[in-house]
Specification:
CATH topology of the largest domain: FAD/NAD(P)-binding domain
Number of strands: 20
Bound molecules: flavin-adenine dinucleotide
Structural class: alpha/beta
Distance between the termini: 26 Å
Mean pLDDT: 96
Largest sheet: 9 strands, mixed
Number of helices: 14
Amino acid sequence: MPHTPSIRPVSIDDVEEWTDQADVVIAGFGVAGASAAVGAAQSGADVLVLERTGGWGGAAAMAGGFLYLGGGTPLQKACGFDDTVEAMKAFMTQALGPGVDTAKIDAYCEGSVAHYHWLADECGVPFKASFWGEPGWEPPFDDGLQYTGGENAAPFHDTIPPAPRGHVPQMSDKRADAERGGGYMLMQPLTDRAGELGVRAAYDMRVQALVVDGDRVVGVTARQYGRTVAVRAHRGVVLATGSFAYHPQMLESHAPRLVGRPAAAIEEHDGRAIAMAQALGADLAHMDAAEVAYFCDPQLFIRGILVDGRGQRFINEDTYPGRVGQAALYGCGGETYLIIDQASYEQGCSRPTATPELRHRPTWVCESVAELEGEMGLPDGALQSTVDYYNRHARNGTDPLFDKRPEWVAPIGSPVAAIDLRGMVGGFTLGGLRTSVDAEVLHVSGDPIPGLYAAGRCTSGVSAGGYASGASLGDGSFFGRRAGVYAAKG
Ligand SMILES: Cc1cc2nc3c(=O)[nH]c(=O)nc-3n(C[C@H](O)[C@H](O)[C@H](O)COP(=O)(O)OP(=O)(O)OC[C@H]3O[C@@H](n4cnc5c(N)ncnc54)[C@H](O)[C@@H]3O)c2cc1C
């Protein structure tokens, strides 16, 4: 086999030797790849996973572990929450848009309870029936359920019945910063299950290009230990190699706001799967969409007000922190500050959190807002009028501008501080290959590319613009499993 660094498809006629073969060949052993492996093996296929690094896991094993599930899962019920498929669809359509793939949202919501059972009962993913209700990116302990999309805050809570849908696998030592966090506790059982079903894995195997026989994908080429090998797929190839958060040129072309800011991703997310399918005519979707993390502890910012570089508020601080991150990056260019008084700061710091490292010290502390505004270099009077207006209504427990919930609205007193949060945003890409609900990779013509499937963050999944924590492990496992099942059909 000649050395083929090119991303262009390789003709079967140019393959001199197949070094391995299987019914279903999967590129990437993260959440989408592991779910595809289990799905394909449960469907009776002989499965081989090719993983670039020395072990399974990917970004998923490092993740907080949220899976966005709902519609009345056993965990939601055990925690005392009612949810319906309709409410879940309505929320995801509004919050994850604009432009969501309606067929995917429908399939995902309608299949969510069954997917929970597959994870918990068939794969052994542990969930603890306890709800974490405090502000935070993740539960600090081993609770299994949390609000992770802003369902219970404006602008959604008045029109769509709210329910928490962030399901997190139970951690091994009851702490979110445990060595074996939620993502690991998802990946360990999934890969164990794959092993029990006879799935084989080859490591240090970097998939490079697709092998085609006419229009049909029949294998891949990969680099292993300095040589190029070819692996035959008799029924289908599944691409599951993650996002393009670490491909600077692709970021520049499609999601320029994330240039220099990759976060919650791994360097192996280099967009290769997207490019190798593009080279075969694959269509793309929502390449500009991104998850954006806001690097500040929600226990703090919910108790103050967030303002932009002109001293103006830009969002209700009680919503999902990822919505805050998107608003901060897209609306404010990343230039934001937290304004908080001493009492609220101390109260926030006294509450449990999974992210103590995001409890920044105040940058400026003053006796008055006028003084603070001067120290920060904001336009004269801008912050003063923002705080005056906020306090006037906060005394009555209201927030007419952004509808922050009454329990989080309190007048800002003295001493008052500002925390400089400029540049405190980063994230990963959500766009990628356009796929069908059955995880077939679609050609620009709209037809499926025969033999080619994909899932996870190399595809555009349920998020088209907005995001909710758990949507990645959620759609990666949901459509990953489907990719395996449909690839196994051949
Ligand atoms: C700290 C952190 C916290 C997060 N928290 C959450 C959360 O709570 N909920 C949530 O939904 N998401 C979360 N995420 C994001 C989530 O982990 C990813 O979006 C998700 O894992 C993507 O799934 P995937 O299968 O596409 O990629 P991955 O899980 O990363 O798997 C991709 C695999 O493909 C391999 N690979 C790459 N290129 C090649 C190649 N050429 N050939 C062969 N193999 C290759 C990689 O090494 C990797 O093992 C978090 C991420 C991080 C890092």
